[in-house]
């Protein structure tokens, strides 16, 4: 069997912090989770490529070029969410609205459910957005918003290595599930 290839894309980096709740920045949470997902997937025989493995800035174009040079089976971007309302919490999955395939969205929904099962988070669902990177990446692509940094408890969880590991375990299960469904299609 061909070894599946997955690209992990930790959102933001370098001067681009993403959402910030002092002293925490989204870019660090995204990277910490993705590094753990990488280790877990590799332990399961998946070839993992990362758009960044340290704290550095990376343009949308560089992410796209990197992804499209790899012939990957799946592209997974990791982000956090933020709202004015500090009461909103949960995990969500996003796909580009211009290439939303109902079957793919159903499979991605399962991926989101796997993470939420492990972390005991609310799973908010699969949503569509217009995103330059998700649209231009040739591999099936999704973006996970792992938590709301605007929710005090989710913020505390998000920066906790133990919790990051749970999210990574759920994401790994979900990604393995997606790869298996891909092969069966
Ligand atoms: Zn972000």
UniProtKB/TrEMBL annotation:
Q: Does the keyword Hydrolase apply?
A: yes
The UniProt entry, under SMART domains, shows:
Ami_3
Tell me the protein's name: N-acetylmuramoyl-L-alanine amidase
Q: Which Gene3D superfamilies match?
A: Zn-dependent exopeptidases
Q: Where is the MurNAc-LAA domain?
A: 64-176
Q: Does the keyword Translocase apply?
A: no
InterPro entries per UniProt:
MurNAc-LAA_cat (IPR002508), N-acetylmuramoyl_amidase_3 (IPR050695)
Keywords of the record, alphabetical order, are: Hydrolase
Phylogenetic classification of the source organism: Bacteria, Bacillati, Bacillota, Bacilli, Bacillales
């Amino acid at each position: 069997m061909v070894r599946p290839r997955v690209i992990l894309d930790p959102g933001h980096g370098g001067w681009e912090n993403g959402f910030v709740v002092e002293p925490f920045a989204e870019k660090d949470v995204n990277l910490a989770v993705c590094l753990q997902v990488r280790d877990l997937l590799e332990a399961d025989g998946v070839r993992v490529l990362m758009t960044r493995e340290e704290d550095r800035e990376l343009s949308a174009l560089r992410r796209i070029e990197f992804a499209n040079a790899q012939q990957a089976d799946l592209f997974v971007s990791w982000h956090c969410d933020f709202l004015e309302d500090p009461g909103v919490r949960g995990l969500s999955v996003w796909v580009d609205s211009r290439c939303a395939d109902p079957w793919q969205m159903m499979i991605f929904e399962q991926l989101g459910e796997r993470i939420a099962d492990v972390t005991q988070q609310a799973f908010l669902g699969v949503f569509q957005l217009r995103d330059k990177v998700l649209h231009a990446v040739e591999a099936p692509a999704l973006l996970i918003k792992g938590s709301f940094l605007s929710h005090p408890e989710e913020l505390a969880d998000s920066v906790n290595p133990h919790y990051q590991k749970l999210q990574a375990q759920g994401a790994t299960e979900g990604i393995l599930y997606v790869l298996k469904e891909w092969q069966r299609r």
